[in-house]
Amino acid sequence: MNPAGAPALVPTRAPIRRRPLGRTIGHVGLALTVAFAGLALGAGYWQVLRSPDLSRAPDNPAVIAAARNVVRGAIVDRDGKVLAANKRDKNGEPYRTYADRAFSTVVGYASRQYGTAGLERSWNAELTGVSNGNAIGDVLRKFQTDRYDPQKLTLGITSALQDAAVKGLGSDRGAVVMIDPTTGEILALASTPTYDASAIAAPDPDTEDAGFAAVRDNKAQPLLTRATQGQYVPGSVFKIVTAIAGLGSGRITPTTTYPEQPKAENDGLLVQGFRVHEHPGVPARSFDLVTATEWSSNIWYALTGLRTGGDNLASFAGRMGFGAPIPFDLPTQPSQVTNPGGGGPGGFSDQVELANASYGQAETLVTPLQMALVACTVANDGTLMKPHLVIATTGRDGTRRIQPAELGRVIGPEEANAIAAAMQGAVESSIGRQFTTGAKVAGIPTAGKSGTAELGGSGAPHSWFIGFAPVDHPQVAIAVIVEQGGRGGARAAPLAGDLMTLFFKLAKP
Amino acid sequence: MTAAASTLPAIFGSIRPRPRWRETKLLAVVAATILVGSVSLELTRHVADPGEATGLHPANPLHLAVYLGLLGITHLVLILSGRRMDQILLPTVAMLGGISLLLMERLPQTLVVQTVGPWRLGLGDVQLTWLILSFVLATTLAVTVRNDRWLRLYKYTWAAAGVALLLATFVLGDEVNGQRLSLTLGPISGQPSELLKVILVVFLAGYLSEFRPLLVEESTKVGPISLPPLPFVVPMVAMWAIALGIVVVQRDLGAALLFFTVFLALLYVATGRPGYVAVGIVLFLVGAFVMYQLFDTVRVRVDIWVDPFRTPAGTGYQIIQSLYAFARGGLLGTGLGAGLPTINGNLPIPEVHTDFPLAALGEELGLVGVMAILGLFLVVVERGLRIAASAADDFRAILAAGLSLVIGTQAFIIAAGNLKLIPLTGITLPFISYGGSSLLVNGIIVGLLLALSDRGVEPPPPPRRPGRLARLAGRGRPSAAAASVPAREGRP
Fold first, then answer.
1. Which CATH number do you get for residue A494?
2. pTM score, whole prediction
3. Which domain holds residue A462?
4. Three-state DSSP state, B220
5. Structurally, how many domains does chain A consist of?
């Protein structure tokens, strides 16, 4: 820009002009106005967009203050039976009592010393009445004298079903999840062992301490809600996930057969130098979807998994909630088809792992709630509904029902019906019955799949069952796991049959 | 209006009272609003569940009466002065002061206790006292300041006084929480950085208006980069160094940010050269980065800002509580007096009366209230800038712009800090926060702005001969435009 040869420092000369300052002052004013508009947006972000979740945060002073002084809303079951009620101590301060130990892993506790757990924690804001979950209602409430409007929570669980599930699990550790597949309403959510929530919420500190210590020191970890947080090897119940991925991706049809299967039934299926073996007693034949499911053929499902591919398997599992915590009223552990970090498609480390995962071994880990959602998907024509425990909240302004919501469409109705037919065969055919003894609900078409999850050590396998009924218009889907309960047909299948039978008995008085 | 004015009798010899109807109407609106707020506060007090400690203190109806009386007297004095001053500034500031009074009345009075003779003064009493003094100061300046020579001629004296004040604070200041912000001289204690911001603006107005022609037209090229003329890079760097010095010496991030922002804004106003602002921002970023590396105070502030929820019970506590307060307020707020449940008798937000008044108001008045308060600040700035744009000469223009930008920028910095838009720095929300220094200095600003807005003050003196620096540079001859500023008629 400088003339050639000019020194580096050249003052450039221009005629001296003086302009009035109005223009630049205007610019500065505009800049400040924009900055203030930013402030208004920031205030809007915190006061409108983030207001609902920040107002409900457990350490928000308003929530803490409410928890001390407010009589919490009751928690009742589907029939209105009170599960969590309030009493007053000698100082007149309220405390919680819980009616049924079978619900402790669901309802949790609200203790003065030990905070909250379960629904008492996740629905704390509604139970204390800081929020009633309705934005307009929250605004209008500010004009009322009593700002707290504790909400009564109604659960979709029936006490009789929940009690029977806990009783059926007995002294075993395990979990039962029953869901209405058309709405996602939880009908029973049992985890054993349970604990005494009333003791932890007791008004006198000694009982409180003893109650909490008993739970904390119990090696069986009763505070771990197994139904939503227990991670288990699924075994053969996972084959339904493989079927969903195979049919959903179009890689197989219900009539797909594998010519190499008969030989593999005898010698094992060779995958990259590793042999996948069948469980004993399966004939050396070619199967299709129905017969493979009736026989619970590891070879057919391993071949299906290999043909479907790891990416499809992981992706269809992901549509049902695998890989992330399931949005739910209680904390949930994510389920996984494989360990994170594998290099192959879908995260599997190699074809051997994929083949083993396809029938539910390898690195696959699932929660009972996740497997119940798999059953729900098949039962509800391939569309998964969002599971929820609380079906209604009741406050001063009346009752607000929580509407069913879709989590997403996993597969089409035709694929779902094909799998349902296979699962019906697994429960009702002469071959299937051998593995699912007792799962059939008398007089009602029943579908299901048992699982026997080998744990690798010397201990007994986990006993699994998932299923639903009636096959045509399902009203209940179920997942049962009994830790180290033996074969699927030994503990889980009969318990599922009993609970579904009880469900239909209760539904038709 | 002129006709109405001529009907009023002359008093004090030549001074004719001049009605200020717009101000009268606006002040009536302000008075009504404060009354409604006060009634609302009182209703909450009586209706609130007694079992729930809201920390409400019984109101002192006398305070409200005194404040409204103060507004009336101020208004009357301005009318009697007969000067043609801005009529919107005072009501806007009166509204902000009224909101402040309502808030301080509503907070636990024990937050501030001062004993004066036989009286024990609580938060509301002390704040009202400062508000009175602030308004008296503003009115006095507005009525009595008739020429600006004392500001204009002694800019280097003012600058020296400012630096001296800074040094005095450093040497003699009281150290609180690792910050040296306040200075105690005998019975008087104050925060010099509040006064420093006015001195800064006065100096900058003098300096920039004198050297404006040079700054606008000249540049030094170092290779492809166009810089301001070298002699004038020095004050810019000096400002930058002073801002950093305030951070290093006083650990006062808010004041440093305020000074530097106002400096850059005025530099732009005077020169219209965005390049200077760009260089300034680069300098700021470099300084900020070095500060972040060197000083724990700065690093902690920035880390809290990035993720306060990592230390919810520790350093992040204040800002999280502030955000919770905003969130509790929602769209319409809980209502005056209905926010901030105390926990074990403590307020959830420490320093709510000085650093977080906006969070408290956001909770009780909601998003609507926050927008209204932000709007009031914008009105103050807009009036100030309007006064600047119609000022008789560059000095007055830059002075008025600087004074109003101090208010606007300070409000922005603390509001943005409360809202976690920028790292939180402990400065006051003008006119609303509790604090004597802040209210008095803001009173000075309002007084000067009112005086500058008078369309009848004495004409500015003819431009001086160029300063020594300008003569050294061999340019900067007074231009014809500056000399021919029309002398305006004071009174009809």
1. 3.40.710.10
2. 0.66
3. 235-507
4. strand
5. 1
User: Which of A22, A55, A65 is closest, CB to CB, to B327?
Assistant: A55
> Is B345 an interface residue toward A (CB < 8 Å)?
no
Domain ranges of chain B: 149-294
Size of interface A-B (CB pairs under 8 A): 179
The verdict on residue A92 lying in a domain is: no
Picking from B257, B265, B306, B245, the residue whose alpha carbon sits closest to that of residue B284 is B257
Are A142 and B332 within 8 A, CB to CB?
yes
Query: Using 50, 70 and 90 to split pLDDT, how confident is the model at A7?
Result: very low
- Retrieve residue A420's tokens: 């349902």
- Is the distance from CB of B181 to CB of B191 less than 8 angstroms? yes
For residue range A462-504, list pLDDT tens digits in order: 999 999 999 999 999 999 999 998 888 889 999 999 999 999 9
Please give the pLDDT value at position B11: 52
Q: Is A144 on the interface with B (CB under 8 A)?
A: no
Q: Is A7 on the interface with B (CB under 8 A)?
A: no
Q: Does A58 touch chain B (CB under 8 A)?
A: no
CB-CB contact of A312 with A249 (8 Å): yes
Distance CA B321, CA B317 (A): 6
Q: What 3-state class would DSSP assign to B157?
A: helix
- pLDDT band at residue B343, thresholds of 50, 70 and 90? low
Q: Decide: A194 and A215 in contact? Cβ < 8 Å.
A: no
Residue B59 has pLDDT above 70, yes or no: no
Q: Does A324 touch chain B (CB under 8 A)?
A: no
Is residue A418 within 8 Å of residue A437, measured between CB atoms?
Answer: no
**pLDDT interval class at B487 (50, 70, 90):** very low
Position A349 in a domain:
yes
Cβ–Cβ gap A39/B416 under 8 Å: yes
B353 Cβ under 8 Å from any chain A Cβ:
no
Cβ under 8 Å to A: B residues 377-416: 377-378, 381-382, 385, 388-390, 394, 397-398, 401, 405, 408-409, 412, 415-416
pLDDT value at residue A166: 95
Domain-located, residue A296 = yes
Task: Name residue, tokens 């729900």.
Answer: A376
Of A16, A25, A54, the CB nearest to B324: A54
Residue A147 lies in a domain: no
pLDDT (mean) for A125-135: 73
